[in-house]
Each structure stands twice: as structure tokens, then as C-alpha cells.
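Quick sanity check, Putative ammonia monooxygenase:
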Amino acid sequence: MTSESEERAPDGRRSDGNGAARLARLALLFTLSALGGLAFERLGAPLPWMIGPLVISAAIFVSGAIRVGVPTGIRPFGQVVVACQVGLAFSPEAFAMLVQLAPAIVGTALMTGLCIFVVALILSRLAGISLAQAFLCGVPTSPVEAAGMAIRAGIDPMPVVLSQTLRLSAVVVALPFALYALDGWPDARRAFVRIEPVDPMNLALLAAIGVAAATTFRRLRVPNPNFLGPLSVCALLAVTDHAPAPFPGMVLALAQVVLGTWLGSTFRRELMGAAGRMAAAFLGATLLVLILCSGGAILIGRAAGLDWRTMVLGAAPGGVVEMALTAKFLGQNVALITSFHLTRIFILMPSIPWLVRLISRYETRTPKTEKTDAR
């Protein structure tokens, strides 16, 4: 049975048409997205099965060529697959390295939070929005979670959703291409997805572990359960040398197509058209945060003796799923980079609601103080 949220498009509108027509449009959308991933792979583009579908689906939804709501229920599939794959990278050797590098990882998380707050101060003036709203616009979290926090804080969620969507998309697209530009473009003929023999029992076992872990974390009300649940359980299995084999490359590519298409579907003509100057300010703020975080990460990396590419990916203000995929594609240490992002999540995520309340309280008191001083 389809839930109410699954029947609605990302912008809140109900998708029109009967069930058969809707399924046909969804099938066409995902086919075009997959072809976009294939084209980007043949071009040798970074993260092709994520960026290709993102670009194609965003163009489709902004143009209005296909009008259909992408069910939110499909996104957990992509999250669970990627989380299991990332968790399996936590070997005993990787875990020992993470413990050793804990100061650099925590320091990078705090540095990223400071950069976000500094840029929020600038954004609030450029976009003419409150500091609390600007902070929510830039803090690394999902658009849905940021919108929920905005509503609970009495803040207009639409600019927050737009900024978060632009932030996530810009980082996913810009960062891999920037690293390619600095390190050199690889051979376009290199195939990322290969046809591999599939063990049905292992595939079923890993899928069952991922789903069970996600369900358990959701019942425990842990944030981002579809990612943190499978990641935690698979990491524990990997560290204790009890991990099953990872998913085949084709399954991982399919998960990326799902995630890229869902993210691209959040771009809407109505939202982008009404945004105008504000969208440009949000995009500029995202790029500024990315530059500041990258610079700070490189400095921390030099002090800790870590590769600058690892540090830039670890400090990037993108989603942990997307950055883990980027690290995997670029041949970086997936477990280490994921640890950077998870540390930031566990430090920043519980702090966001009370930080927003604190900022809002400060902003409501400031005008009163100014009026008193003027008298």
C-alpha cells in the first residue's frame, strides 16, 4: 500500500494520472536516468552513475518534460546498498587507523562547522534572510531533515529546501570534477561497472542484514536510520572478520541511479523560477563553504601528515552517502573519509536544533536592544 508521502511529488503536489500511466512515466524517467549514467561513464566522468542521473532528471523536472512524483520509498534502497558497501570497508586495519587519527577527524568536523557559521553570516545579509534560516540553509544534512527543523523552529522551510538541494547537488557535481581537474582526467574507456558473477545467497544475506539494521535503527529513532543502521552493523561485521562479500558493481550502480534520480527530481520549475536571486546567493554560499572547508582541511592534513585529497573529501559539506561514493570512485580510503563525515554528523546533528533556537533568540533580542540604544 502506498503511503501519502509516496503519492506526492517532492514539491508536495500529487502526481496526476492513473496508476498504469504513472508507472510508465516512472519507468521512462529511470530509463533516461540510467542512460545518462551510462553516457557519463563512457565519457570517463567522475561518479557517473550518480551525477548522470542527477543531471538528466533535474533537466527533465525543471523543463516539465515528465510530470511524475518520484516515490520517497525508493530512496532507502539506494541508502541501504551504499551503507552496506561502505560499512564493509571498515577492516581491522582501517579501524586502528581511525583511532590513531581521531584528533584530525574531530578537528576537521569542528572546522567545518565554523566555516558553515561564518558563511551563514554572509548569506543572511546577501539573501536578506535571518541568520537562523541561513544557518539551516548551509548546515550539511538532508533537505527533508533541514525542512523539518525549520518548521519546528517557526522558519519558512522553502528557502531551506532550495538551498539544501543546491548544496548537495553542487558538492556532488563540483568536487569530483575539481579533483579530476587537479589530478588529471582518467582514461574514458575505463569501465566502473563490470559484469560480475553473483552469489544469490550472499546477495540475499547482505540485503537482509541491511534491511534489518535499518528497521532496527528506525524503531530506536536513530537519525538517518537507512544509512547509519546498515553502516554500523556491516562495519561491526567487517571489523570482526565476519562480513559477507560486498554487493556487485551493478547493484551499486543501480543504487546510485536511484539516489541521483531522486535528488534530481527535487528540482522543480516553480521552485527554481521563484527563487531567482536567492538561488544564486545559495549557490555562491555553497561554493564559498566548499572553498573554506577545503582550505582548512588541507592545513589540518599537512599537520597530521594526511593526503590532501582525503582531507578535502572528508571535510566536504556534502552528504555522507554521496561523499562515500565519491571516495570509492576516486580510489580514496572510503572507511577513513566516511569516518570524517560520521564524526561531523554525530557532533553537529544533535547540536543543530538548539543552535537554531539560540540564534533565533539572539535575533529577536537584538532589535529591542538597538531600539533601546537609539532612545
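Posting the structure with no commentary besides this: The radius of gyration is 21 Å.
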